Amino acid sequence: RSKGEGPGRSTIFDASMHDRVRERIELEGALRTALAENRLTVVYQPIVRLDSGRPTGAEALVRWTHPERGPIPPMTFIPVAEDAGLIDALGTWVRNEALSQLARWRADGTVDGDFYLSINASPRQLEDPRLPVIVAGELRRYGVPASAVAVEMTESVMADGGGIAARVLYELRQLGLRLLVDDFGTGFSALGYLRRFPVTGVKIDRSFVSGLGESAEDEEIVRAVVAMSRALGLSIVAEGVETRVQRDALAAVGVTQAQGWLWGPGVAPEDFALHWAADRHAPGPAPLAAGNP
Ligand code: C2E
Ligand code: MG
Ligand code: MG
Ligand code: MG
């Protein structure tokens, strides 16, 4: 068929909509099965201290390989899980996987006692008033202190003033978990929430990091975030660091923690232990002389 004579625009639109709906339903079914059959995985990306290059923590990132279509990015399947009512089950699965892994690493000395695991939460998960009690139970079950766990959430959770979420965040913080604002700076929201919510730190979005060394504006933004975070007593992690230029620019303005491909992507737990174990000391700053206070 030639252009103009074929199906009208609306028919084409309907057909592609139909495809998308079908694809969504297929993905949803496959995801449901993957969850039920325990076929998701979690990878761990190191969060390093900029002064020593040693890991101070790791971010848990969920992975899914579709049986026919191969790896599907979280940006694609997390929204499917949210729409399908699967996000609580997915979140619970990721927490249990990550917390049991953290318990093993703490027990076998792969990580130090002050190492923390950072776990992403969708806004929907933080709307569940039972979440704090559930998390408290999980921490007990795995014998992991709350201080070794961070919850990452986006600004949108707090932008709405967050009725239930506000209480959930307060209770998670009461338990002793760290609360980090993910993708900080991309939410277009007034910063007042940093005072109203018990946030303990921010993660500077990659979009501000990528221009460092080239863009004076990005550098000023990061400088301002550092000043604000210091004044409010918040921790800072820079996300998506890919080059040494970016790393040096971050260190120069006082950012202390970072993650990104410069140090490595998320990896399977056995690879994390192999490359990032606490006893594999890279040449770092000289230890304090014996007898120092
Ligand atoms: P996020 O929490 O902001 O995670 C950072 C994303 O940046 C990850 O993508 C990570 O693989 C990627 N990344 C890390 N370093 C670099 C870098 O140097 N350069 C670039 N270009 N990218 C880098 P990923 O794993 O595809 O996850 C995407 C998003 O999906 C996450 O963004 C998070 O919002 C969500 N997500 C991942 N795992 C979970 C989960 O278990 N639960 C929930 N609710 N959301 C999750
Ligand atoms: Mg995150
Ligand atoms: Mg992030
Ligand atoms: Mg991000």
From TrEMBL:
<feature type="domain" description="EAL">
    <location>
        <begin position="24"/>
        <end position="280"/>
    </location>
</feature>
<protein>
    <submittedName>
        <fullName>Diguanylate cyclase (GGDEF)-like protein</fullName>
    </submittedName>
</protein>
